Amino acid sequence: MIQKSPLEMTLHHLRLLHQNHAELAAFCPFPDDVKRQELIPYHIPAADIFQNQVGLQPSNYPELRDALIALSPDMLWRETYKDTNIAADFMERFGCYEIIGRDAPYASAKMRSFLVFQPPHLHYPWHHHPADEIYVVVAGEAEFHLDGRPSETLTTGQAAFHPSNAPHALTSHDHPVLAYVVWRDEFETGPVWSESEKN
């Protein structure tokens, strides 16, 4: 039996997640136009933290979690906020790579999707973007913030929806968090910091 590569395993388990996770399925079906494209890997310090992170247990999706970890050395890790005034600690510890989309091993005209990783005790400041967004927690837990709503701590299998241009933030406390993130509609414009830190 031929063993699938981490990339093939990731795509397989993402298809299953889109089919079987009710909120994700309603938000965006898995696209039918996915095609392979070339990618030049790019490494950042957070990639090493992710590779060595303990505490990404339990997980409702252990095969997907393990595939995302195995895939990470070959991915283009993003530095979305490199030229902003964000703290160096955030840049060194926050991790994100694209799985389906523009800077990803797979292309689609229908959505973009990402891995987002935060080790314990890291705050992702308030930001917004035109795309509608959903986070599905693959492993770990974190506190999700959405402007105008009470914050809530989500664990594996739970999801957070962020409407277009609604300020939102993410805080990990005593546990790391690994999430699968999907953008739909107007997904060519990246995130920007919201005007002020919310209380």
Supply database-style keywords.
Jelly Rolls, alpha+beta, two-stranded antiparallel ribbon, 199 residues
Give the arrangement of secondary structure elements.
Elements: H1 6-20, H2 22-27, E1 35-36, H3 45-52, H4 62-71, H5 88-93, E2 95-100, E3 106-107, E4 112-118, E5 122-128, E6 132-146, E7 152-155, E8 159-162, E9 168-172, E10 177-184, E11 192-193
Antiparallel strand pairs: 1-3, 2-4, 4-10, 5-9, 5-11, 6-7, 6-8, 6-9, 6-10
Helix pairs in contact: 1-4
What do you see in this structure?
- This protein has five helices and eleven strands; from the N terminus they run H-H-E-H-H-H-E-E-E-E-E-E-E-E-E-E.
- With 199 residues, it is α+β, with helices and mostly antiparallel strands.
- The protein has one domain: Jelly Rolls (Sandwich).
- Strands 2, 4, 5, 6, 7, 8, 9, 10 and 11 form a nine-stranded antiparallel beta sheet that branches. The protein has a two-stranded antiparallel ribbon with strand order 1-3.
- Strand 6 and strand 7 form a beta hairpin.
- The longest helix is centred in the first third of the chain and has 15 residues.
